[in-house]
């Protein structure tokens, strides 16, 4: 079963492969990252790790048994007890419930590991799969938005229904994988 892991320096090669392999698939439903993202990937990866170390973001890789990255599930703009949730799952792993499981796991981690009380998310109207994942994970529609010039919906998820903090047991694995 894939494991949600807090982003580490050694994830870089598998993460870059994941982004390259799925670029066209992702671009069908979310704005493309652009050539600069790939050209400056190592620099960008180091910057993400620095943001994570500062506590303003928490980046996670969904790692398969072979060490391959099957998805990303991230919390960005962490402030005032809340954060923005973003995620993407590899095309070859789509349709197996991994996104829903990973988003639910991250909601639990956000509450019990990171002390957050609310998460925000958004999805384009033409991305029915992502909208379904958000609903299955307990997010509610709170309004309309634009994502990369495309119409979408904004979602909110209170984390009050998760149990009390569990300490380190609620944190994702940081073991090499």
What does it look like?
Pfam families: Acetyltransf_3. InterPro entries: Acyl_CoA_acyltransferase, GNAT_dom, N-acetyltransferase. Keywords: Transferase. One of its GO terms (molecular function) is acyltransferase activity, transferring groups other than amino-acyl groups. The chain has 177 residues and is α+β, with helices and mostly antiparallel strands. The chain has one domain (3-165): Gcn5-related N-acetyltransferase (GNAT) (Aminopeptidase), CATH 3.40.630. 33% of the residues lie in helices and 30% in strands. The chain has 6 helices and 7 strands. It has helices at 12-21, 23-27, 35-39, 41-54, 98-112, 128-136, and strands at 3-6, 58-63, 69-79, 82-89, 118-124, 140-147, 150-158. Strands 1-2-3-4-5-7-6 form a 7-stranded mixed β-sheet, with helices on both faces. A hairpin with a 2-residue loop joins strand 3 and strand 4. It is globular. Residues 165-177 have low confidence and may be disordered.
List keywords for this structure.
177 residues, alpha+beta, Aminopeptidase, 7-stranded mixed β-sheet, 6 helices, 7 strands, 30% strand, globular, Acyl_CoA_acyltransferase
User: Helical content, roughly?
Assistant: 25-40%
The CATH architecture designation is 3-Layer(aba) Sandwich
Distance between the termini: 13 Å
Task: Please identify which CATH superfamily we are dealing with.
Answer: Gcn5-related N-acetyltransferase (GNAT)
- Taken in chain order, the helices and strands follow as EHHHHEEEHEHEE
- Which term fits the overall shape? globular
Largest sheet: 7 strands, mixed
Mean pLDDT level: 90
GO molecular function, one term: acyltransferase activity, transferring groups other than amino-acyl groups
Pfam families: Acetyltransf_3
Keywords: Transferase
InterPro entries: Acyl_CoA_acyltransferase (IPR016181), GNAT_dom (IPR000182), N-acetyltransferase (IPR051531)
